[in-house]
Automatic annotation (TrEMBL):
Keyword Mitochondrion included in the entry's annotation: no
Taxonomic source organism: Mariniplasma anaerobium
Keyword Zinc-finger attached: no
InterPro entries: DUF2207 (IPR018702), YciQ-like_C (IPR048389)
Amino acid composition bias (Gly residues), ranges on this chain: 638-658
UniProt name for this protein: DUF2207 domain-containing protein
UniProt lineage: Bacteria, Bacillati, Mycoplasmatota, Mollicutes, Acholeplasmatales
Keyword line: Membrane, Transmembrane, Transmembrane helix
């Protein structure tokens, strides 16, 4: 049951947890700013000019200061699918635009510093206010809320602006094709746009309305002069685009430049295009479902393949030993060597501590302590090297550890715990040296084996890895279909990526020991089980301290030293202990402190490792900052994706906070 859980259930749980954690982190990031309600009143005149009043009810959960509202007023972009007259343009009326700010329902506009790009105003950093990235046909409205405590809490922004020449009149129909925004700081929980047209008392038979960019947006005409668009839970990358087709009589006073009677655009051409978009969107929704199925099926195949290849190629050899417990150290090898076999070629921090304790037990090193400090949480021990080993007395990694601690870190055959802890502090060179010595320790543990304990299984691994080709095919299938049909494929790709990563990780971690070393492994496992459970045994208590010190060395590499020491404490109180010959178990008069040396060594080494890593990070960050100053930076555009198709309307822009 334990093996089934490890092989089948655990990878699935880890994959699901990893997927959900990523989504949760993304959700936390998005929740720092929320747009609760967006509403726009859009009024069109008989000239085809557009007057917009927008309100954003927002909640800020982080201390920001300023907001920009970028507004594009380009009428036709280069990717517009129909021919158009070059003089058929829209313009932003700067003298009719303004904004207001409300905090917690109170108008605080008189205390807010406003700025406008067309006036050459500057932002809080002293830079000219522009759209980002800076582009022609775009203006930006800026609000600095420093005087009212910044952007924190419930803030409402109100924007009023006028864009002339938005509508276009063709031979048999007039068109409004506009995009109110491409991007925002967050998704919008609840949104609405009320569009008011010139009132002419006409039949709705020749009125059409289409929306793009926000999935499941609802659009309808309430009358011949009023339309309403509503939506919920948009994404921050969604764009809000609408296209209205209305009778020409509505815009009886349209400027000549906005009347297109040259190009062959008419109602049927536009309706055909919109109907094609609707069909494409319907197909896209089907393809999105298929993409979910492809991602899930691929994940299931990878999941089952993990189990299949384990059983076929990596399942351990059956051994002759099947006893649940082994009451003595099964082989005369060092704790670091045992760890390399037991933990699949891994060498950990505990192995450094275990090697040090083993050298103390073998009386190559002695602990010297201050009795007044021994009961402290983190006492300062001194380590004294009693003798220099020859190359045939100890293993290479043991000799390296002695040189590392007593020659590199200490001096004159002595080193104390504080010196070890502080070795890399404020020294990049010492940090690099520490990392180098730690890597050498691992390599020398590996070199202790004349024959690799593990099988390479190169051919078998290649066969198993070939299954990842299925994941690659599924990945590109989803991306291509998302590009063709314009749906958001992020979550399917993320799920596929999670399954692929854990499949690859499982293949990498699968190790098959050679038969001889599998025999060793099962005996070490039985010995470890004995160390964990010996407190439950009533017979034959072990009362010799020398034996327990040997056991504790291996318990340290097994990462169960604290558990074993707690059981040993109970055993001592019950059965007593012969303390003759002890080297590190009992330090001081209080037996409750007997584990201090082990904990101190382990804590000091981890502290040294953490300090070294921190110094290397600081150095690398400083070098990155120096290099960054020498590089120029560029920005990317903000126009959103199709999200169900686009009519390539004019306008755009969005909101930015910082």
């Amino acid at each position: 049951m334990k093996k089934i859980f490890k092989l089948l259930i655990l990878p699935l749980l880890i994959t699901a947890a990893f997927y959900l954690i990523i989504l949760a982190v993304m959700s936390i990031g998005n929740n720092k700013i929320s747009i609760n309600v967006y509403h726009a009143d859009v009024i069109f005149s008989e000239q085809g000019d557009m007057v917009v009043t927008e309100t954003f009810d927002m909640t800020y959960k982080q201390a920001l200061r300023v907001r920009f509202r970028d507004i594009d007023y380009v009428k036709f972009y280069d990717d517009y699918p129909f021919e158009y007259a070059f003089n058929n343009t829209a313009s932003f009326e700067t003298d009719q635009s303004y904004m207001r700010v409300y905090k917690n329902g109170i108008d605080v506009s008189n205390r807010v510093d406003f700025g406008y790009s067309w006036l050459g105003d500057r932002d809080e950093l002293g830079q000219r206010i522009t759209c980002e990235p800076q582009r022609s046909g775009c203006v930006s409205m800026f609000a600095d809320l420093k005087n009212i405590g910044g952007l924190e809490g419930d803030i409402t922004f109100e924007y009023h602006y006028v864009i002339s020449g938005v509508a276009t009149r063709y031979d048999d129909i007039s068109e409004i094709n506009w995009n109110l925004f491409d991007y925002m700081e967050s998704g919008i929980k609840e949104g609405s746009v009320r569009i008011t047209l010139p009132e002419k008392d006409l039949s709705l038979d020749n009125f059409y309305i289409f929306t793009h960019g926000i999935k499941d947006a609802n659009a309808e005409y309430l009358s011949d002069h009023e339309a309403l668009i509503t939506f919920n839970d948009s994404d921050k990358k969604d764009f809000l685009e609408f296209r209205l087709l209305v009778p020409n009589r509505l815009f009886s006073d349209m400027r000549d430049q906005n009347i297109d009677d040259v190009n062959q655009v008419n109602k049927n051409i536009i309706l055909t295009y919109e109907n094609d978009l609707i069909d494409t969107q319907a197909k896209g929704e089907i393809q999105q479902i298929i993409s979910w199925i492809v991602a899930c099926l691929t994940g299931i195949i990878l999941y089952l393949a993990t189990f299949y290849f384990y059983r076929k190629f990596f399942k351990p050899y059956t051994t002759d030993f099947n006893e649940p417990y082994l009451r003595d150290v099964p082989y005369d090898i060092t704790p670091a060597e045992m760890s390399y076999i037991y933990f699949n070629r891994q060498t950990s921090d505990e192995d450094v501590t275990a090697t040090l304790l083993d050298l103390i037990r073998k009386k190559y090193i002695k602990i010297e302590y201050d009795p007044t400090e021994i009961s402290n949480y983190n006492p300062n021990f001194k380590l004294i090297l009693l003798k220099r080993p020859s190359s045939n007395e100890l293993k290479p990694h043991e000799i390296h550890l002695i040189k590392w601690f007593f020659d590199t870190i200490g001096k004159e055959n002595e080193v104390n715990i504080r010196t070890i802890e502080n070795y890399p502090i404020n020294s990049y060179s010492n940090s690099i040296r520490f990392k180098h010595d730690a890597d050498i320790f691992k390599e020398k543990v590996k070199s202790a084996f004349k024959v690799n304990p593990f099988m390479y299984l190169i051919r078998e691994r290649k066969i198993a890895k070939s299954v990842l080709l299925l994941s690659v095919i599924a990945f590109f299938y989803i991306i291509i279909n998302a590009g063709i049909y314009g749906f958001n494929s992020f979550y399917q790709l993320l799920l596929l990526l999670c399954f692929s990563i854990f499949y690859f990780y499982d293949l990498k971690t699968y190790m098959k020991r050679k038969r001889e070393y599998q025999e060793q492994y099962v005996r070490w496992e039985a010995f470890r089980r004995f160390l964990v459970d010996f407190g439950t045994f009533d017979d034959d208590p072990i009362t010799n301290v020398i034996i327990w010190e040997k056991y504790l060395v291996y318990a340290t590499s097994f990462k169960i030293a604290d558990l074993v020491m707690e059981q040993l404490r109970v055993s001592i109180e019950t059965n007593g202990l012969n303390e003759n010959g002890q080297t590190f178990i009992f330090m001081g008069n209080d037996r409750k402190t007997h584990y201090n040396p082990m904990r101190s060594f382990d804590r000091s080494f981890r502290h040294m490792k953490s300090q070294a890593a921190n110094q290397i990070r600081i150095h690398n960050r400083e070098m990155s900052m120096i290099n960054a100053k020498a590089r120029s930076r560029s920005s990317s555009g903000f126009r959103g994706g199709f999200g169900g198709g686009s009519s390539f309307g004019g306008g755009g822009g969005g909101g930015r906070s910082r």
